[in-house]
Design a protein that fits this description.
Layout: H1 3-28, E1 29-34, E2 48-52, E3 63-67, E4 87-95, E5 116-120, H2 129-132, E6 135-136, E7 140-149, E8 166-168
Antiparallel strand pairs: 1-2, 1-8, 2-7, 3-4, 3-7, 4-5, 5-6
């Protein structure tokens, strides 16, 4: 094989790798628009976030997108992976095995049960684990990687600090 043919093969392989990565990235990444103020001051209504659709990276301090709890049954109701019920953007305060924060309703102090997350919005009036208790980890859509665009079209300046509710590219809603 000539050197030119070798370069052509290498270029074709590189192009194939790039083209193959695009569909994979679309399966793993999603853009989410924040709606509401429950994550203020970290996130504002209208911020656009890049979300990694992955459940294993949810640990304290991370901002996540989770299925909105049912108004009657909370997170005890049926799961709706379609997102028709809406989404919340919240900060993980405690994960499985961590001490249960005293403000979470339930049987008193203890540890966060396996498969559960304690969530809290940055705004004091946020609807979160204060009202609904721990959230099942399987209700999580993904982990926020960064803010792509700040509200009002301003360019984002690095990773999202953490904030409000939103919906995976379909639109999201946030609690007060």
């Amino acid at each position: 094989m000539s050197q030119a043919a070798g370069w052509a093969v290498a270029a074709a392989l590189a192009a194939g790798a790039v083209l193959g990565a695009v569909p994979a990235a679309r399966l793993l990444l999603s853009a989410v628009t924040v709606q509401g103020g429950s994550m203020t001051p970290a996130l504002d209504h209208g911020d656009v976030l890049l979300v990694l659709r992955h459940r294993r990276r949810a640990r304290p301090g991370r901002i996540v997108v989770v299925q909105r709890p049912d108004r009657r049954t909370g997170w005890d109701g049926p799961s709706d992976p379609s997102g028709a019920a809406g989404w919340y953007v919240k900060r993980v305060v405690a994960a499985a095995g961590d001490p249960m924060p005293p403000w979470v309703p339930g049987d008193g102090p203890g540890r966060v049960p396996p498969g559960m997350l304690v969530l809290r919005g940055d705004h004091p009036r946020s609807e979160d684990s204060k009202q609904w208790g721990p959230c099942p980890a399987d209700r999580m859509y993904g982990v926020v990687l960064m803010r792509l665009r700040a509200a009002g079209g301003r360019a984002a300046a690095g990773p999202a600090p953490a904030r409000d509710a939103s919906r995976p590219r379909r639109r999201s809603s946030s609690s007060p």
